[in-house]
Amino acid sequence: MSAVSRRNVLRGGLVATTAGVVAPGTVAEAVAAADGASCPAPPGPAMVGHGDRRYRSLASRGYNRRVVGEPEHVWVVGTTAHVVRAAQQAVDSGGRITVRSGGHGFENFVADPAVEVVVDMSAMTGVSYDPARRAFAVEAGALLGDVYRRLYLGWGVTIPAGWCADVGVGGHILGGGYGPLSRLMGLSVDHLYAVEVVVVDRRGRARAVVATREPSDPHRDLWWAHTGGGPGTFGIVTRYWFRTPADGDDPSGLLPAPPAGVLSFQVSWDWEKLDRTSFARLVRNHGAWAEQHSAPDSPYLALYSELALTRRPSGTVFMIGQVAADSGAERMLDEHIAALNRGVPVQPVRPVRNQAWLAAALAGSPGDPGPVYRLKVKSGYLRRRFTDRQIEALHHHLTRTDYDHPGGGVSLYTHGGKVNTVAPDATATPHREASIKMF
Ligand SMILES: Cc1cc2nc3c(=O)[nH]c(=O)nc-3n(C[C@H](O)[C@H](O)[C@H](O)COP(=O)(O)OP(=O)(O)OC[C@H]3O[C@@H](n4cnc5c(N)ncnc54)[C@H](O)[C@@H]3O)c2cc1C
Q1: Does residue 91 contact residue 206 with C-beta atoms inside 8 Å?
Q2: Do residues 352 and 233 share a domain?
Q3: Distance 103 CA to ligand 1 centre (A)
Q4: Of 219, 252, 285, which residue is a domain's last?
Q5: Which among 44, 121, 160, 216 is most buried, taking Cβ atoms within 10 Å?
Q6: What average pLDDT does this structure show over 234-255?
């Protein structure tokens, strides 16, 4: 999907796309009657423009400051009905509209000079169990940390989503949702039961539609499109429902349970001691290990690692990760490091930490704005390890001296396991043979 077509999100693009997926007149509108009545009033709707003191907080809360936008106004919304209203207003006025949830997108799909209206989902953060759908309902503005905390404390379950607790569920799920537990449990979208999404039909009417994975659901295609088809492409998601394909009425059996504890680690290799040969050996060993252990029957599925091949001026090549196992975690990590370091004459430094699972999942303190980042990121999936020629090119660019910026690099994430048990066409995330995810 090109950047241009993604950016068409909710103007012409949405109208055309949804008209193809959801036949007007046959859709079940998600009635927003449940919004509010006997509950405390939700925030919004508020149309925040330049003169409003909230404007700056709302308009500039994106993670990647390489891209900036200055929308005419930002909608604060608290219910699905508010989102429908915001979308309708943008359609009627012809304003280019987009949506922001956690603000952790890498590209300029939200922060862009061409965007006129932003719907900000950050006040819609509910996480609850919906007995009618036998699934966990998560509002799109929730951050992953909110989701982990509430699902785990409430029912002892989780979804295998990303490592950064600040990422928004709104955009994350639409890209597949990959994290430290995915080798054990699959992608987040493998547990997605339904979405509620605000779309605009061919007559220019905004409305909310619920699409489920039920084979009999006439909107099943719309559900499928939300299992990796890309964020902001088909409409504004207001709510997700999660349930692993499973039977039973006990909520604690409807999603996977994480381990009680994890072993978190950070391993680093001093760049000064890594020459061309030992660097190549380390990368080759890592690729071989990932290939060997990407099958669903690997005994190392609990081990997740991110090897960061940084630029030499940064000082160290490092690997962070966790072993999500209640027993045998130290042994697994020792064996992993030994396999990577075979023939590498540099002893890595290896701090480790035993943590309760929830503490590890919440690392990164949601809400902390942290440093300002300006990034350009590309990603890809590898079935096989890098060839020697590719490793040579990597080494050249990471060590070249005609460019002295310490930033930049290539990160290699262990992949596969349970992710690779799902058919490529079962969801809109077709990469089901990879051994490494690369950023
Ligand atoms: C520090 C960091 C760590 C990350 N870690 C991981 C990881 O471990 N695993 C992983 O898989 N990914 C990871 N990502 C990538 C992340 O999942 C995506 O960038 C995701 O799109 C961010 O979602 P967001 O809601 O936070 O971002 P936003 O900037 O709010 O949105 C990103 C995109 O999604 C669209 N969008 C947002 N909300 C909605 C909605 N409600 N309905 C429709 N479209 C919407 C936006 O319009 C935009 O195009 C990480 C990103 C960062 C910056």
Answers
A1: yes
A2: no
A3: 7
A4: 252
A5: 121
A6: 92
In terms of residue numbers, what domain contains 403?
Answer: 261-438
Q: Ligand 1, atom 21: nearest CA belongs to which residue?
A: 171
358 vs 14, more confident: 358
Phi, psi values for residue 41, rounded to 5°: -65, 130
pLDDT in tens, 178-222: 999 999 999 999 999 999 999 999 999 999 999 999 999 999 999
Q: Please tell me whether residues 281 and 245 are part of one structural domain.
A: no
Cα–Cα distance for residue pair 21/413, rounded to 1 Å: 34
414, 195, 182, 409: which is closest to 308 by C-alpha?
409
132 CA distance to ligand 1 centroid (A)?
29
* Token pair belonging to 100: 């922001």
Give which of 43, 247, 64, 224 is closest to 139, Cα–Cα: 43
CA triplet 437, 103, 61: central angle to 5 degrees?
A: 140
Predicted confidence (pLDDT) at residue 14 exceeds the cutoff of 80? no
pTM of the model: 0.90
- Type and span of the H or E element at 144: helix 144-155
pLDDT at 67 over 90: no
Asked whether 160 lines ligand 1 (CB < 6 A), one says no
CA distance 259 to 157: 10
63 lines ligand 1 (CB under 6 A): yes
Specify the 3-state DSSP secondary structure of 7: helix
